[in-house]
Amino acid sequence: MIRFRRIALNPLNDWLSAKPSSGSHGKYELRVWREVNANFAAVRDELIAYAQEALDDARARIRKGFEETLSPFSDAADDPAAHYPAMLNRITLQGYLGETLAGLAVEHFGAFGENDWCVPAFLFRFHDQEFQHLDLINERFLRGAVHDPDAVVERRPGRTGDDALAFRLDQGGKITHVLALEAKCLIRNNSTTIAEAHNKLAEGTCRPSGIRELITLLSDYKTDEAQAWVARLLELFKEGFKTAERRDGLAYTVGNWPKQPATRVSWLSPNAPHASYTAGRRLDAMEFQLEALEQLVDTLYRGF
DNA sequence: CTCATAGAAGCTCCGTCCTA
DNA sequence: TAGGACGGAGCTTCTATGAG
User: Fold this and answer.
1) What is the rounded distance in angstroms from the CA atom of residue A214 to the CA atom of residue A159?
2) How much helix, strand and coil, in percent to the nearest 5, is found in chain A?
3) A157 CA – B20 C1', rounded, Å
4) A 202-231: CB within 7 Å of strand B
5) For residues A53 and A5, is the Cβ–Cβ distance under 8 A?
6) How far apart are CA A271 and CA A154, in angstroms?
């Protein structure tokens, strides 16, 4: 555990208004939240802090190796993480938002009726393609060259692997449940993307690849909390995965919502899993409808 | 009739893998 | 070593269908 921030529930619930859900499927549940942008100001600062804390590990990773010669990074021009993530392409930032909201929802709103899910760390540091891209961007700034972050040529593929992992522990600290979260974040709804997300979740294994990444990541931290997580994740990786229950979560963040028919609330299916979801596990679908998605990306990641 | 939606196909990128 | 296919991310455009 290297992250601890929580957002006060009252302003959070006012900003992300939960829509009543209707389904009664045994293994599937859809929850829908719709943004009330007018209530954003009250969560703004806490949300920025939460989103930025999620990126702290990636920043530390970017700076690693430069610390001896450049520390402290008093001059922004010296800081290899200075432009992270603000100068990355908008689509990359949407991806970060989607993953962050997935974790946020599980930590604040629970999942499967349980409120004790833990997300020990986000996996942003494993986005190698953007780290290489960042070197290029930093060089441009040092040369005084122009950098247009949202130009099409600045798009980079997303990170492969699990988007986020959450866990439940028993009283002895042993991992009993693994929740693999697949996150998507689009300006406009896209049914193909929904199908692919379900398909990817269905293909997941009981021992998601992200566990190994989490162990690698947390091993860099010497706190008791982090080391305890390394130990329990190692146990999960070696033996525990055979008995721990894997569940699936889909966090679908989208910049519009259905208009027709008037009774339709969500893009995701309310009653049963999408046909592309062929696994028999329990699936928690979460849909975040943001009326000012682009503005939110700017606020959280670009500081305006 | 008009507007919205689903689904398919095509597009922009980069890195990786395979083949000549 | 060079060229090409492919994968993975989301966007755009098109068509057929359906709602109001």
Assistant:
1) 14
2) 45, 15, 40
3) 29
4) none
5) yes
6) 39
The pLDDT of residue A292 is: 80
- 3 state SS of A270: coil
CA A109 to chain centroid: 15
Nearest nucleotide to A193 (CA to C1') is C10
Distance A130 CA to B19 C1' (A): 29
Q: Give the nearest nucleotide to A253, CA to C1'.
A: C10
- A247 or A92, which is more confident? A247
Other C-beta atoms lying within 10 Å of the C-beta of residue A147: 15
Contact A236, A244 (CB under 8 A): yes
Most confident of A153-157, A200-204, A208-212, A218-222: A218-222
Gap from A193 CA to B17 C1', Å? 25
- Is the link from the previous residue into A85 a cis peptide, with omega within 30 of 0? yes
The closest nt to A152, taking CA to C1', is B12
Q: Where are the domains of chain A?
A: 9-302
Q: Give me A104's structure tokens.
A: 């946020």
In this model, does residue A108 exceed pLDDT 70? yes
Q: How many angstroms separate the CA of A100 from the C1' of C16?
A: 37
Asked whether A100 and A107 are in contact (CB, 8 A), the reply is no
A85, A92 contact by CB (below 8 A): yes
